[in-house]
Amino acid sequence: MKILFFLFIFFSIASNVLASERFYDSANRNLNSNAYEGQIDAQYELGEKYLFGSSEYPKNYSKAAFWFEKAAQQGDELAQFNLGWMYQKGQGVKQNNFKSYQWYLKAATKGLSVAQNNLAIMYFNGFGTNVNYKKALIWFKKAASSGYAPAESNLANMYLLGKGGYKDYDKAFSLYKKSAFQGNPVAQYQLGFMFQKGLGTSKNLENAKFWYSKASKKKDQQAIQRLNELNNGMDKSESLISRKMEEAKAFQD
Hints:
The chain has twelve helices and no strands. The protein is mainly α. The protein folds into two domains: 15-110, Tetratricopeptide repeat domain (Serine Threonine Protein Phosphatase 5, Tetratricopeptide repeat); 136-253, Serine Threonine Protein Phosphatase 5, Tetratricopeptide repeat. The relative contact order is 0.07. The protein has helices at residues 2-36, 40-52, 61-73, 77-89, 97-108, 113-125, 133-144, 149-161, 169-181, 185-197, 205-216, 221-231.
């Protein structure tokens, strides 16, 4: 009886695996067919599968870009954003900041916060378009209004620097705080710095240590250095901007 029992289990498992393979094979055929027929969701999904790769769809950035563009041309904002990102990074397509800017703009105007944030970065740095701090500020505001943590931190940078408008440490502090509570290590570091220097809030070294510690746990090297300095009783006077905010890397995509 035991032998028969184990044989039953073996065949049950094998049958399930074969059934699953038949199901996925059929699903993949339908996905490909639907994509070629012009169905937007299928085109986007196919692009995503090639972007991340799987046993059924080996990673292929060129094919990912091809299908994202098919969906993007039909107005899919996620595909437009992904295609913009691929042009920005040169993944599967020749690197082209102007095309990246164009696709980000299309997705941003449809309200996609991550596209709004990246579009603002393009304006800030003059990637694919002219440098325009006022437009960067506008788009960072739009992205931050949805609670997108990187955009909140980026908008705080703008207020800290006074780019596109005026310096406002109170607004910068508030935005860093919102972003930091979402776990953003860049904002956690900056919030620690605001507490350390008393910018937009009262100077509080214990709070500074707390936020530096949060960022340190995520391997932020400057936070680790700051935390060590404060723990050793050092509070150096230095320039206002602790990071080189003007550099593109200070703004998070």
